[in-house]
Amino acid sequence: MKVVKEVFVCGGKLIKLSHKSISTKTSMNVNVYLPKQYYSQDLPRKERIPTVVFLSGLTCTPDNASEKAFWQFQADKYGFAMVFPDTSPRGDEVASDPEGSWDFGHGAGFYVNATQEPYAQHYMMYDYIHKELPQTLDSHFNKDGVAKLDFQDNVAITGHSMGGFGALSGYLRGYSEKRYKSCSAFAPIVNPSKVPWGQKAFKGYLGDERAQWQAYDPCSLIKNVRRTGDDKILIHIGDADPFLEEHLKPELLLEAVKSTSWQGHVQVKKVHGFDHSYYFISTFVPEHAEFHAKNLGLI
Ligand SMILES: N[C@@H](CCC(=O)N[C@@H](CS)C(=O)NCC(=O)O)C(=O)O
């Protein structure tokens, strides 16, 4: 991993990194916020700092959330690190949307492993986000036998829109092995198989076989995942979100959990007047941060 830039922000630092990914066969950018606790001498040697992964939405790079979600204040408050990955492989050699639209291809990898050519060449975003990136960050930051940061065990996941879908999907697919301790989402695409953004992406990356789609669709996955302990999923969505009716449809997730172990444990908070932007996200980041801090054992 190569450090491209270090930026002082709040009480810690945002580290901008780039690395060659085995999964995507491209160079990938990722931002990591190390909270003030990382730099403190008082950190008990045995305590590793947990991480919260934020998966961004369509058109985003790691910078959108780093600059506009205001997670850093919360990371310092509770003592977790943040990981802001990119949303797709990029570069001239990486196929993008034949229609040239922003909802597929570059900036729109949908966090799945593509099986269809030409996308299967590079769009292995599921493996990248949930396996390769945590391991790579672990090796980079926890050198010399001193492990201060936890990228693999005590980890929470959240995201926005396409990234909200990615968070729900990764959490539920990894649920039996407790891959993530906590999951939340901002304006997520909850049922990609049923909405235009998701159908376009799934057809392009996964092909026409619907069974492949169900393996990533939160509304299908949640029916087959038995909830344990006190686990809950927290979702916020603005009622003035222009994508609400066509692409997000949070009510479909509430329908899907009816009569399952998740009924009553998926909280969808529809908030009046908010749109799809980072004004909306940053407003509710403190509530999500507290939710994850509890689930990560920080409070
Ligand atoms: N670029 C699209 C909007 C796409 C969009 O709203 N993307 C969301 C995620 S789904 C986002 O986070 N955009 C970047 C930003 O607001 O900084 C348009 O022109 O309508």
From TrEMBL:
GO terms for cellular component: cytosol. It catalyses: S-formylglutathione + H2O = formate + glutathione + H(+). Pfam families: Esterase. InterPro entries: AB_hydrolase_fold, Esterase-like, S-formylglutathione_hydrol. The active site is at S161, D241, H276. It is an enzyme of class 3 (hydrolase). It comes from the Eukaryota. One of its GO terms (molecular function) is carboxylic ester hydrolase activity. The keyword Hydrolase applies. Its EC number is 3.1.2.12. GO terms for biological process: formaldehyde catabolic process. It is found in: Cytoplasm. Keywords: Cytoplasm, Hydrolase, Serine esterase. Serine hydrolase involved in the detoxification of formaldehyde. Belongs to the esterase D family. PANTHER family: S-FORMYLGLUTATHIONE HYDROLASE. This is S-formylglutathione hydrolase. It comes from Saccharomyces mikatae IFO 1815. The gene is SMKI10G1400.
